[in-house]
Amino acid sequence: MSVVLQRAVDLLVSSAGHVALNPFITAGLLWVLTKGPPRLRDQLMSRVAILRDPQRYAQILRALKWCLAFGVTGVVNRQLNNIALNAGRLRSSKAMWNWNREVAVITGGCSGIGELVVKRLINKGIRVAILDIQQLPSNLQGCEYLSSALLTQD
Predict the structure, then answer these.
(1) Domain range summary for the chain, segments of one domain joined by +
(2) How close are the terminal C-alpha atoms of the chain, in Å?
(3) DSSP secondary-structure letter at 124?
(4) Alpha-carbon torsion, ordered 7, 8, 11, 15, to 10 deg
């Protein structure tokens, strides 16, 4: 039973962390509690007793500000990581490739994972060159997008 309880607590903490660090949620709550319409703020304070205490109210606002700062930092970090992983480009480079003019060179393409990669590329219309020490399998022979070279072992 303790494993199930631990998983439930982990899920709850993880979900609460995602909510607390979501800039849209924390910014919305912060706005409602500070600059929002007085009627909405009064309704919220009348329903949540902890907000009526001025010290607790100040602590909640401070916590929301920190959560907003960490949430925005996380979003900016993820976006910068995406840019870094995309070689410094803001947009994906997929549109730059003209796959009809490209040739993929696959070593070990006559069997195993290499053969599966070759089949997927051929199905997408990409020309493939295979370098392998094995003969080209019969299911790949005669394909128009394929050329192969047999390497000898010395």
Answers:
(1) 2-85, 97-150
(2) 62
(3) T
(4) -170
Torsional sign, CA 41, 45, 47, 48 = positive
Confidence (pTM): 0.56
- Angle (CA) 50-51-53 rounded to 5° is 75
Q: Which tokens belong to 140?
A: 């790949």
What is the chain's length?
A: 154
Scored b (16 or more CB within 10 A) or e, 45-77 reads: eeeeeebeeeeeeeebeeebeebbeebeeeeee
**Pair 74, 66: CB distance under 8 Å:** no
Tens digits of residue pLDDT in 43-101: 888 888 888 889 999 999 999 999 999 999 999 999 999 888 887 777 776 667 777 78
